[in-house]
């Protein structure tokens, strides 16, 4: 799917004849904070490296990840964003079937269909509540070995768009008893929840079963989606197959340099996490008087809101667009029954502007 994601500021900027940077984008789940001090200078100082080919296998970044997580550098593969792996893994693994809990990120389904897999859905689990978490864990636990053979299981943890989060140790216990098929765990939003010890399977790297593949995004927590760099981590036999199909120079040099710089600054991840959670609460509180907009439970920095009549997701989306604001209309998330929007926080002044605009948008139908 080329369209239908968040963050498409370019289409709106053309429509309104404004600069893309003037769009207030609440549809993208990336960090809104300025980059850590020194990143721009560091990239500028190394700009002449654009005359050189990138590291063929992103060696420096893999070494940095190895130091952080205690795994061999060979366990890490870098690519052109995690999207590269989402679309290539079903084909490379030779899977015949996929299990996907709903609602979730639509690219899992699109990638599996593009590779000719039969897709079976679990759920849907419409919010991030404890009840939904318990239900999805029960259903994952009920998957039998005969069904998992030649299969992949996609789990977005924490989940987009609901914010549902399965504690990593609980997820690990499920997979440890089902070492059949391949479990692809997308941890793109884990850094927004807590540090690695509480949010990531990589905190127990020594226990990882060989049939787990973990995806980690640099785009979200560091706010660098334009550089396109993502990470795959696994300790299993599939590593040899993945390495044999790895593209040389899959990551551009500026992305390699930025990732190496940012991985040395865990304090920035903490700063982003705290800021985004605070601003999330500002938005939820600011919209609390609008009865037709109800926030769903979830641990992520973004919030899924259920929309009730007389409003609709399309009405809110279109009315904000003409004000130069983007939110996520969630109508293309399979498994969401009803009307939903998703909002990710920006800087404080922008979030206040959104609250004011939402009050005006909703007042038209009061």
Task: Tell me what you see in this structure.
With 366 residues, this protein is of the alpha/beta class. The protein has helices at residues 9-16, 39-45, 59-69, 82-92, 106-114, 130-141, 145-148, 168-176, 196-199, 219-222, 238-244, 253-262, 266-286, 313-321, 348-363; strands spanning 24-25, 76-79, 97-101, 118-122, 151-156, 182-186, 212-217, 230-233, 293-295, 303-307, 325-326, 328-329, 339-343. The strands form three sheets. A seven-stranded mixed sheet has the order 2-8-7-6-5-3-4, with helices on both faces. Strands 9-10-13-12 form a four-stranded antiparallel sheet. It has a two-stranded parallel ribbon with strand order 1-11. Strand 5 (151-156), helix 8 and strand 6 form a beta-alpha-beta unit. Helix 4 (82-92) packs parallel to helix 5 (106-114) and helix 13 (266-286) packs parallel to helix 15.
Would you kindly provide a brief summary of this structure?
It is globular, with a radius of gyration of 20 Å.
Strand content: 5-15%
List the strand order in the largest sheet. 2-8-7-6-5-3-4
State the shape.
globular
- Count of individual beta strands: 13
What's the main sheet like?
7 strands, mixed
The gyration radius over C-alpha positions equals 20 Å
- What is the helical fraction, as a range of percent? 25-40%
State the distance separating the first and last CA atoms. 36 Å
- Structural class call reads alpha/beta
Low-confidence stretches: none
Q: Whole-number average pLDDT? A: 93
User: How many helices?
Assistant: 15
Order of helices and strands: HEHHEHEHEHHEHEHEHEHHHEEHEEEH
